[in-house]
Amino acid sequence: MEDRLVAIGEAAKSLGVSVDTLRRWERDGRVRSQRDSRNRRMILVSEIERLGGHMPALTGDGFSARNRFEGEVESVEVTGVIAQVVIRAGPHRVVAVVTRDAVEELGLAPGIPAVATVKATSVMVARR
Fold it and tell me: Is 95 helix (H, G, I), strand (E, B) or coil?
């Protein structure tokens, strides 16, 4: 079990319940929370897992993102210093333009499992 703390909204999402439900569970003693330095409710990942939830592995250095597409690299086209990476994630096809260095560092090639994280106008690609 992992001991990382996550925000109550992320915990609720992983459990498939609303934030209000999670707050009620806390009042009823079903789940324990902690407050961070900014007085936000935080839940231990081990508590979420105890309740049957599953937290996805972090991608990168722990940034927050709402839209993650886990899938498989469909194609990689390298042209000079940039590359176009296409990831097939279920019914979705995510196309990202990244550097040649990123493709080489991540070892991206057709058939490799990968995660595309979409945040605002940026798409971040990581190997899973």
Answer: strand
